[in-house]
Design brief:
six-stranded mixed β-sheet, 839 residues, 23% helix, single chain, alpha+beta
Length: 839
């Protein structure tokens, strides 16, 4: 009976389980959610995933691990679920399934006042508007897809191989009413005026120069980089973009860190601390379930979402879905056709990753040729792509759902330079004239030609000048810039493309010449016959040394010529041996020595690039008469000996035991000891005094480490002496005047670091105020403390308080040098506050 009862219970249980599974499957079919392996819902079989390189990811997981699930993989799932739960609060609006939410940003109506900000740059995915031109940066508002293409007009030059084949102009952080919107942050004003800019090609560097003077949002790199520019910029830190209110005519530079490889990203973590807003529709929630179920790392989730969308939806960039008032992302994911363009795919991609807890945003910019050292970027290369933030690498762009933006105009052109100066002096201007025609010889109009100076035809460099083509002709007059060295160059004229005509170029040679200058610093007197000649040969325009030029040093009257070649920085150096004949004309005799005067010429004969230069110098060659020197020395020694003997006989060397005072400094550093001046050989009843004249009256005996301190010492009779000493270690020093009979006078000096001293005085002052029951705590900033103290004192003393806090802030926060003037001002301010404050 028991066995029969158990069989009945088991049958009922299996029936209920089977019925539950059928109901769940029916519910899924009713929602029409695509299966993970299905295209258009036709195939729901879950096969193993491929990483894009023909490698089975499931196989990789299982190698070396029987279960295929390491501890770190379990950690990732837990972290993904936790990040997902943290965003669950964004879904408490009770939207019915398929209902359009008012906003995908929590707190809708708070940041943007409940309406779409008309001046906030945004990308519209609804398909209602056309995509405007973006010739350099972008100062407008809405960017959306439209049929056709942007005009093929030149936007800017790029010198250098970029870290990623993109530059971004704006980044869209939030999603609202079918629009991706920039973050509503306040920009910071940045100045780098006077920055020295190098226009040459360099590794890990990208320089951008607009074809036409432009302002607005400017193209910049993704990832980690340092900006170099010579104008003011507004920086949107969170968005990672820059804005210029003034027209940019010259180039700016970005020096970037080497980007991570795919292998490095595979094991890298995304930035879990990055805050962003997201609303997760139910359709996205179900996809996130599958992501967490099938992935074990951030990188796998990123690749999984890309593959999921490509395998379950049809990517057709010619389609423009008009969603009207429906939410575009939900409508795309739940649509019957499941067909979308790159903006549909990118929007769904970004929202799904955000829902998983991976920070992802959309970047609007340009797509570049990936490995070109120089390129001109055109307006129709506008590109939208996602960026994902990693802990160690910053924002990394992902070229998912890519599309071709590069355009080749149909018609050929012929650009010909008909005249160009073959020689130009550095710093002066040159003239270039030419013609532009189509392949049939018809003159073209309203096009742009860029002029380059290149040592080699294939050398990557930014343009030197820009000129417009009018009725098939152009003429450019421009200066040879200071950063162009002397040498032989090619003048290259490149025609910029438009929708119809391709580029073409012409490249005659140009010789840039420059004047030279000889700077001689050889000695004017030598003893013996070795003359060490030294100097420099310089480019007179830039005063930079020139290497590899030969300079002749000639002594005409000696028939002597030496040739010296310049080294690094144009340095000239050589030893010349001089042999003077006995009958040489320019000779003068003294008792101890004879002197010869040798005029000599220094000449650079010039090259085809560097102009000649010569100068004349003079040299005195001395010959010592050692016999005469010896006679004089012996005579003086004899005279001195005789004087000493006479003085001794007369008792001139006898003296009493006199106390000779000595001045000394004792302390933690190396002290100083100096003999007193003869007038300070004193008797015991005299008094001695020590003063520090650099320390003002009323200030303590405190001096800065490493600063020279004057010490004046004198007696009651007015005899006076002085010396100066530098103390290199902090501490208490004792200055004393002492002799055989003991000390005659002392004075202490404390050597300090002024920054530490100001901070110490400031702490004591704040501690005194705090003890008077003012609400001051350790976590308050100095500005907050100032705001607390200020109402407690009379307004006439506010300037004293503010001045004291200004010095204290400099000592606490600034890297600037803190000196004696700062210390004296702070000491006096604090002293006055203590005496006059009613706190």
């Amino acid at each position: 009976m028991n066995s029969r009862k158990n069989l009945i219970n088991l049958a009922v249980f299996l029936f209920i389980a089977l019925l539950s599974m059928l109901l769940i499957m029916a519910a899924i079919n009713m929602m029409d959610l695509p299966g993970i392996r299905s295209r258009g819902g036709e195939n729901n079989n879950k096969t193993s995933q491929n990483d894009g390189n023909g490698n089975n990811r499931d196989k990789q997981r299982n190698e070396g691990n029987g279960s295929g699930k390491s501890d770190s993989q379990y950690d990732w799932r837990d972290r993904a679920k936790r990040r997902r739960e943290e965003r669950k609060g964004f879904n408490d609006r009770n939207y019915s399934y398929g209902q359009k939410p008012e906003s995908m940003i929590p707190g809708y109506g708070e940041d943007y006042g409940g309406v779409m900000p008309e001046q906030m740059p945004n990308i519209d995915i609804s398909g209602n508007e056309g995509l405007p031109e973006m010739p350099f940066g972008m100062g407008g508002n809405t960017l959306v897809l439209r049929e056709g293409k942007n005009p093929h007009t030149p936007a800017f030059e790029v010198l250098g191989v970029p870290n990623y084949p993109f530059v971004k102009v704006m980044t869209m952080e939030n999603y609202l009413n079918n629009r991706w919107i920039m973050s509503s942050e306040e920009p910071e004003l940045r100045f780098l005026l006077g920055e020295k800019m190098n226009r040459e090609f360099s590794k890990n560097s990208v320089k951008i120069k607009p074809v036409e003077p432009s302002k607005g949002y400017i193209p910049v790199l993704s990832g980690n980089y340092e900006m170099k520019y010579d104008f003011s910029l507004m920086e949107y830190k969170k968005s990672g973009v820059f804005y210029s209110n003034e027209l940019i005519e010259n180039f700016y530079e970005m020096v970037y860190e080497t980007p991570p490889t795919e292998a490095q990203l595979r094991y890298a973590k995304t930035d879990g601390n990055y805050e962003y807003d997201v609303y997760i529709p139910k359709v996205v929630e179900l996809i996130v379930d599958e992501v967490i179920e099938n992935c074990y790392s951030d990188y796998e989730a990123i690749k999984f979402v890309e593959e999921f969308l490509l395998e379950n939806y049809t990517y057709d960039n010619s389609v423009i879905n008009n969603y009207g008032d429906k939410d575009g992302i939900s409508a795309f994911l739940l649509g019957e056709d499941r067909v979308g363009n790159h903006l549909d795919f990118l929007s769904a991609y970004a929202i799904i990753l955000r829902a998983v807890g991976i920070p992802c945003r959309l970047a609007l910019g340009y797509k570049l040729l990936p490995n070109a050292q120089y390129q001109v970027v055109y307006a129709d290369q506008v590109y939208i792509y996602p960026e994902i933030k990693f802990e160690d690498y910053g924002w990394v762009p992902m070229d998912v759902f890519s599309y071709d933006v590069f355009y080749n105009p149909p018609e050929k052109t012929i650009t010909q330079i008909t005249f160009a100066d073959d020689t130009a002096r550095r710093g002066n201007s040159i003239t270039v004239r030419g013609t532009v025609t189509d392949s049939l010889g018809n003159p073209l109009d309203n096009m742009t030609v860029l002029i380059y100076l290149k040592k080699y035809k294939e050398e990557p460099c930014l343009s030197y000048s820009k000129v417009n083509v009018s009725q098939g002709s152009f003429e450019a007059v421009f200066n040879i810039t200071g950063d162009t060295n002397a040498g032989k160059y090619h003048v290259i004229a490149d025609l910029l493309e438009n929708d119809i005509y391709r580029t073409s170029s012409s490249d005659p040679e140009l010789k840039v010449i420059t004047d030279t200058f000889l700077e001689i610093d050889s000695p004017e007197n030598i003893f013996g016959n070795k003359f060490n000649f030294s100097g420099k040969i310089l480019d007179e325009f830039s005063f930079e040394g020139v290497k590899g030029l030969e300079v002749n040093v000639s002594f005409e009257h000696l028939n002597l010529v030496e040739t010296i070649e310049s080294g690094e920085d144009g340095i000239l150096s050589g030893e010349i041996e001089i042999d003077i004949p006995e009958d040489y004309l320019y000779y003068k005799n003294f008792f101890f020595a004879g002197r010869y005067y040798l005029p000599y010429d220094v000449e650079f004969t010039g090259t085809d690039i560097y102009s000649p230069y010569s100068t004349m110098r003079g040299l005195y060659v001395w010959e010592i008469y050692w016999a005469n020197v010896l006679i004089v020395v012996l005579s003086l020694a004899g005279i001195l000996l005789c004087v000493l003997i006479v003085l001794k006989k007369k008792g001139m060397f006898h003296r009493d035991n006199i106390d000779l005072p000595v001045l000394a400094a004792e302390g933690p550093g190396v002290g100083v000891t100096t003999d007193m001046i003869p007038e300070l050989v004193k008797k015991e009843e005299y008094r001695f005094y020590i003063e520090f004249p650099q320390i003002a009256e009323g200030l303590p005996d405190v001096w800065g480490v490493g600063d020279g301190l004057s010490v004046v010492f004198y007696d009651s009779e007015g005899n006076k002496g002085e010396f100066k000493e530098i103390f290199h270690k902090k501490g208490e020093y004792r200055i004393k005047i002492s002799g055989d009979n003991g000390e005659h006078g002392t004075r202490n000096i404390r050597i300090v670091d002024y920054r530490e001293e100001i901070i110490g005085i400031g702490k004591n002052f704040l501690r005194e105020i705090s003890e008077r029951v003012l609400p001051i705590s350790d976590v308050m900033t100095l500005r907050e403390v100032l705001d607390v103290i200020k109402p407690k004192i009379v307004s006439e003393r506010h300037w004293v308080l503010e001045s004291a806090f200004s010095v204290l802030e400099k000592a606490v926060y600034s890297d600037e040098d803190v000196g004696r003037n700062d210390y004296e001002r702070f000491y006096i301010f604090v002293k006055e506050l203590r005496q006059n404050s009613s706190i």
